[in-house]
Amino acid sequence: MFMSKNAFLRKVTGVNIPMHGVIQSPPKELEDLKNQSVVYVGVDDTLVGLIYIEDQIREDAKHVIESLSKQGVSLYMLSGDKRSTAEYVASMVGIPTEKVICGVKPDEKKKFIRKLQKNQSIVAMVGDGINDAAALASSHVGVAMGGGVGAASEVSSIVLMGNRLSQNSLESN
């Protein structure tokens, strides 16, 4: 079902939000970008702009995924992002789409970790934010990325102070 952005916002908010000065249909190339989320900016009940946000994929992620896969490690990607974004990122780093679980809330990440553990699997979880904290705490080995502050690092077994996955002791050369 196609719905204009204004119709979508009206349906979600129940309010008719004027879109003064905003392109009603963004260029197709913007709609096709898979690794972006859209933030709608409003002033005084008027939509005045769109901001496209893109997470950067860590430069060594593909190498680490390949290395762990060669060692027989079963890898999953749990993401709160929409399907197109999560699958795009997974394709860039070498995770098959059937191992991508998207739109996952923090408690669902924790439940997924518990499900893997019920199968007698040793589970390591790598995360970088508050939305990963419960799953990191539930895993056998929690690995927090990105600097050592915040909820993720508070509950993790390992904190990587840099922003590189390849520091991870799970990887071998």
UniProtKB/TrEMBL annotation:
SUPFAM superfamilies named in the record: HAD-like
GO BP terms in the entry: copper ion homeostasis
NCBIfam families linked to this entry: ATPase_P-type
One of the record's GO molecular function terms: P-type divalent copper transporter activity
Subcellular location: Membrane
Main localization of the protein described in the UniProt heading: membrane
Keywords for the protein's UniProt record, in alphabetical order: Membrane, Translocase, Transmembrane, Transmembrane helix
Signal peptide (from-to): none
Protein name: P-type ATP-ase 1
GO CC terms, sorted: membrane
